[in-house]
Structure formats: structure tokens, C-alpha cells
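HUMAN: Ready with one sample?

ASSISTANT:
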Amino acid sequence: MDEARSIQVMCHFSPDVLGKRRSNPTTSDQLTMLQTVFEQRPDFVRGCLGCLAWTAFSRGNIAVLDWVNQFGIELRSTVPIRDAVSRGGVKVLRWFSENGFEISDPDLLELAVKSGQLEAVRWLSEHGYGVNSLALANIAGKIRNVPILRWLVEHGPPLDLATATLLIWQYRQVEIAWWVSEDVRKHVVFEALQKNDRRVLRWILARTTFQDESAQWDIRAAIQSCSTDMQRWLEEDMSEVGACRWCFPTKMSIGGYEETALPNSKQRRLQ
């Protein structure tokens, strides 16, 4: 088992170890026998205990880990820690931390995101790994893991327009429109109009809100400027959707809108 080679059991058969087991004669006898075998075949015993430790790591068996650790466990590499992260083994990560093992590989948070392990992402973020890069959101979008993507948006930097458009058009994660600013969402609508992406338009206009009056006016103006086919589709498909009525303040005619009033803020700027 190659993975077991990343773990070394030191086999410290000290009086303290045996003394803790004197209340249980059967266990004490087993430990004495194990020590006897170790004195005769040390490599064999180390190998067996190393395999036992690896099995306990991979299955999250903390009781067995505690038992093996009485003989001393050292890690020859970070493979066991990385394996715990990729499996979402938060119990094992907690055990490593509580027993003084260093968890410091710089890419562990990225590994947790790539592996789709939200609980590991949360644990790492609480133990020194900052969610400070939009690249993590890109990874979550690429693997189409919406729960992790939403968590990263809520606990990391806000999505900018470049990241939002990548997630929506390359990875088809239109749900992120819920979690971006109105300004970013407005520009996504502009791009959807340019791309004639009716799925994205329908999703954003029907499921999100634009509270800013200026953003509403800009979107109406963009609709007025788009192609006749797009205007016809918007009128036929969206004008009766309650959440979208602000997009249609007047009856649409083929070729454009009738004249509509500017919002108060823009009227003041023009005066």
C-alpha cells in the first residue's frame, strides 16, 4: 500500500504506554506481545501499524487513530492530509490539528473546492485559509457545484463582471445572478441582449429584481436598441410576467419603444 508509506509509526513502547493499559489485562498482554514481536521483526510491525493508521485515516476512524498514535505517528508527506481534504474528512482534519500536525499546504482550499467538499472548504476557512480569490469561484462554476459557489460568493470577494460573465456563459451558472450587484447584473443583461441569449434574459428578468431606477431605465433603453426579433420575443414571452413589467412601461411596437419618461435622477442631470 503506497499511501501507507507516507505514515511512520514510531513504535515507542514506553512504560507510560503500557502503564495506561494495566487496568485491562487483555490489552496489556496484547501490547506486551506486540512489543516482543517488534523486538524480533521491527520493520514488519512498523509496516502493519502504518497500514492500520492509513486505513483509519481513510475511513475516519478516530478511535483507531488514537490507539495507534500512542506509539507515535509521524507523517513523511502531506498525502494523508490531502486525502482527508479531497474526501471531505473533516473529522480527520480536526484530529490532525488537535494532535499537533501542521496543515499548511497552500493549495488545500483549492483542492477542497475542486473535490466538491463544502465541509472541508468551511473547515479550512476557519483554520487560516482565506477565501480571497475569485479563481475559487471559477473552479466551483467549472465543476457546476452550486452550493460551494454560493458559499464562496457569500464568504469571499464579490463577483466582478468578468467572473460573472465567465460563470454564466462558459459554465452556464446563471444562478450567480442572484448573488452579484445590480450593476454587474445589469451588464449581464446587456450582454445577453447582444448575444441573443434568451435563456439568460428570461432567468434574470423573471427571477431577480432591479431596485435602482437608473438601472431599470438603462435596461429599457437597451431593449429598445436591440433587434426587432428580440423585441418581439420579449413582448410576447415576458411582458405578462409580473416581475418583468417594469421592462415594458409602454406598448412595444415593432422596431422600438414609444417615448418613455426618464427617471427623476436623470431628469435632474439633464436640467
Remarks:
- The CA atoms of residues 230 and 236 lie 10 Å apart.
- The chain has a mean pLDDT of 86.
